[in-house]
Amino acid sequence: MLKKAIQYMIISALAFTFLNVFVKTLNNFSVYQIVFFRSLGSLFFTLPFLIKNKILILGKQKGLLVLRSIFGLISMILFFLSIKFIAMGTAVSIRYIAPIFATFFALFFLKEKVRPIQWLFFGIAFLGVLILKGFDSEMQVEGVVYALISALFSGLVFIIIRKIGSNDHPVVVVNYFMVISTVIGGVLAINSWVTPVGIEWLILMSLGVFGYFAQLYMTKAMQVGETNQVAPLKYLEVIFTMIIGLVWFGETYTMLSLVGILLIVFGLTLNVITKKKA
């Protein structure tokens, strides 16, 4: 089962990577138009699934479902913006500190307990962020700020999903997110709309496909494998994204940037392993 879980997680990481890469290539389009197509593409999978399986599309906890979608939309917009300013590997690494914010929010809103050593690991990860910006003068501050705030809202998404629990089907949660993102992204994109030409249609529509399968296979991996063994593999996205960024876009990383990224991945991986052993 572990072998299959690893295969699923690798597929998920690759799908997320190609999503990042294609967002980076779409320089002619506003981030809102990219969000619109990314969300619309996923609806071709979520809506038919809900209809086929006769699952209540509107869900049971409408308020929480809408709130999760709004927080997720803000996080997605800011992450896509960050990719336009800084190297993809850096943006992905910073976004992955979302568990730090999620743990902090859970402490106050869900009254969850946190092991003291987890704060040490979070400190290591956050030190990585400080090194990325504080000592890399070439890095644009806007990109780092966008990625950080994206991670914060992603942390809030984790909390809302915990509140929703198993009362609503996971695909219902994703479908709400995609519907709201499609509508709001589409409305915000009107003033800066650029009609795609040729292969641009294929690239834009593929965003939803990669996003859907990335989430699907990450979920499958978690279902068939032990979380503390499988979850750290999601950071393969950082490695894959960095490699393609170097080859495709000629992105460069200073030694300090690499140290910062390594600290983020190392700290968060230790946290996952420690938390699940508790």
What does the model show?
The chain is mostly helical. It has 12 helices and no strands. The protein has helices spanning 2-25, 31-52, 62-85, 88-95, 98-109, 116-134, 141-164, 170-189, 199-224, 227-230, 236-248, 255-277. The longest helix has 26 residues, at 199-224. It has one domain. Helices cover 79% and strands 0% of the residues. The chain is globular, with a radius of gyration of 18 Å.
Number of domains: 1
Which class of secondary structure composition applies to the elements?
A: mainly alpha
Strand content: under 5%
**From N to C, what is the helix and strand string?**
HHHHHHHHHHHH
Summary?
By secondary structure, the chain is an all-alpha fold.
Q: Can you lay out the helices and strands and say which pair or pack?
A:
Layout: H1 2-25, H2 31-52, H3 62-85, H4 88-95, H5 98-109, H6 116-134, H7 141-164, H8 170-189, H9 199-224, H10 227-230, H11 236-248, H12 255-277
Helix pairs in contact: 1-9, 1-11, 2-3, 2-8, 2-9, 3-4, 3-7, 3-8, 4-7, 4-11, 4-12, 5-7, 6-12
Q: Characteristics of this structure?
A:
12 helices, mainly alpha, 278 residues, globular
